[in-house]
Design goal:
Two copies of one chain form a homodimer. With about 140 residues, chain A is mostly helical. Chain A has six helices and three strands, in the order ααβααββαα. The first copy, chain A, has one domain: Orthogonal Bundle (Arc Repressor Mutant, subunit A). In chain A, helix 1 packs across helix 5. Chain A is globular. Chains A and B meet through helix 1, helix 5 and helix 6 of A and helix 1, helix 5 and helix 6 of B. The structure holds a DNA duplex (30 and 30 nucleotides).
DNA sequence: CATAATTATTTGATATATCAAATAATAATT
DNA sequence: AATTATTATTTGATATATCAAATAATTATG
């Protein structure tokens, strides 16, 4: 395949990067907790940073579809990492919280996640990262308007 | 959720961007050809730029797993967009080519893809893109070593 | 207050991702 | 040449993505 200008290849390159990163994460996570996926790990971390979210709030934070969240949480609940309680004020909602097992998993995951980021971003300067962040935000904005 | 430094959020932002972009693509593609997915469209374009690829070659070009390629091609073949022929020199291989219907679809897709890219990259300068490309390549490299 | 509109979650159907194992063909080795 | 190793693709199992429709609860409106 021939790529003439960076314009024609950038978005393709973003896909390449995210896949490479996810593969790295999956590999390192599997070494400490084999039954947690990358997405499930991310959800645990997000829940940890916020106390008790509804599924919609959670979905928006991790850029996932509500249907996906329902299914992912089901698996996580079956494995005992989280629990769901129906909100007493609004019975449509369920608030998602982390179990003791989930907290233990987070403790194991945290250093891995730090390592993954460090590995992925090795040799990249702070201004470079800020620039990357900025450009990506612009693209996201362009796509959602 | 709290993000302190860009370092802790960049890879999360990449996910956000790629999802926003794929959503835009899906929407615009569906308007001209409802039964082609973003991935199937990409595969058609890649096949168009190269004449007759094996599945492994194709998989590597689109950063997909061989198993995924098998299944995606099956659907595309069922819908008549591509055809697979077993390689006479090496009967393990199959060479994938585009049908007339596939070529017609490409003609319809091409302007959409151009539009999608233009939309996504609106207001982003050439040096900015080159920088983005460069940083992403570094990250990919870091993740695959 | 009853009905309609909206909201949060679930379920069904289909597409894609990933790993591991299975198949089948080719290449390398003894 | 027979056996072994490697390669290309497929299949099975499970996870996630996405849209549409279904549920169930809440809010708004006449």
């Amino acid at each position: 395949m021939t790529f003439d200008t960076p314009t024609s290849t950038i978005l393709y390159t973003i896909e390449e990067t995210i896949k490479a990163y996810r593969k790295l994460c999956a590999k390192n996570i599997a070494e400490v907790i084999p039954d947690i996926t990358v997405d499930q790990g991310l959800i645990l971390i997000i829940l940890h940073k916020n106390n008790s979210l509804t599924q919609m709030e959670l979905a928006n934070l991790v850029f996932k579809d509500y249907a996906s969240i329902t299914r992912i949480l089901k698996l996580m609940e079956d494995k005992g990492y989280i629990s769901k309680k129906i909100d007493t004020k609004d019975k449509r909602r369920s608030s998602v919280t982390i179990t003791a097992k989930g907290e233990k998993a987070i403790a194991q995951l945290t250093p891995i996640i730090v390592l993954n980021r460090k590995t992925a971003l090795q040799g990249i300067t702070e201004p470079e990262l800020i620039q990357l962040f900025d450009t990506l935000k612009k693209i996201t904005q362009n796509c959602t308007n």
